[in-house]
Amino acid sequence: MHITQLNRECLLHLFSFLDKNSRKNLAKTCHKLLEVFQDPLLWSLLNFHSPVELKKDNFLLGPALKHLSICWYSERVKVCNIEDWMKNSFQKDFCKRHENTVSDFLLDVCNRCPNLLSLTLSGCGHVTDECILQLLKNCPNLKSLKLENCVQITDHTLEAVTLHGTSLRTLHVDFCRNVTQAGLERVREKCPSVMLRADRSANMIPDSKPGKKLMLEKSSRKLVQL
């Protein structure tokens, strides 16, 4: 039995097990498989592991996209998370090659993927507050926003969450050193239903509820006295 003799549902199921490159290569073999590749049902979930992958043509963006993850764990990501004024010329040249890649991609998502439910960004040092603001405005169904090691994210993003994150239920700002404790407390106050986590953010203070934090501080003082 030839693969093209399978019905549409079976082909979609088969494609779902393949990575983006394999899907693209298989789609090049015949018109029927190309149609499967272009089916929106195949593209409800997208995972990327570096900014370079965002420039390829091995995936489709559209209203069917529900879950998006861009996680860059390479050693090179440390360069992008150095404050601009601290970078040397080599580091600046390296960042310049892709400094707008993720932001431009996310703006494209804003325009084409209004049904997005979850977004995870890790190591995306060039993503700005303005970019997250636009995404919150254009993707009103967003329920989960997880940001990790994104140095340009500040309290402006937290403020945008309180104004436009009407559907948001989960917010992580881990290792985002330019958010503050005051900004986190503002989110807790204005969005009590949001599950907030800020591990190693806000001057490297782990996230905790105000009452719990007070108890921990009292316990610490007792240990010091002992």
Automatic annotation (TrEMBL):
<dbReference type="Pfam" id="PF12937">
    <property type="entry name" value="F-box-like"/>
</dbReference>
<dbReference type="InterPro" id="IPR036047">
    <property type="entry name" value="F-box-like_dom_sf"/>
</dbReference>
<dbReference type="GO" id="GO:0005737">
    <property type="term" value="C:cytoplasm"/>
</dbReference>
<feature type="domain" description="F-box">
    <location>
        <begin position="9"/>
        <end position="46"/>
    </location>
</feature>
<keyword id="KW-0833">Ubl conjugation pathway</keyword>
<dbReference type="InterPro" id="IPR050648">
    <property type="entry name" value="F-box_LRR-repeat"/>
</dbReference>
<protein>
    <submittedName>
        <fullName>FXL22 protein</fullName>
    </submittedName>
</protein>
<dbReference type="InterPro" id="IPR001810">
    <property type="entry name" value="F-box_dom"/>
</dbReference>
<dbReference type="InterPro" id="IPR006553">
    <property type="entry name" value="Leu-rich_rpt_Cys-con_subtyp"/>
</dbReference>
<dbReference type="InterPro" id="IPR032675">
    <property type="entry name" value="LRR_dom_sf"/>
</dbReference>
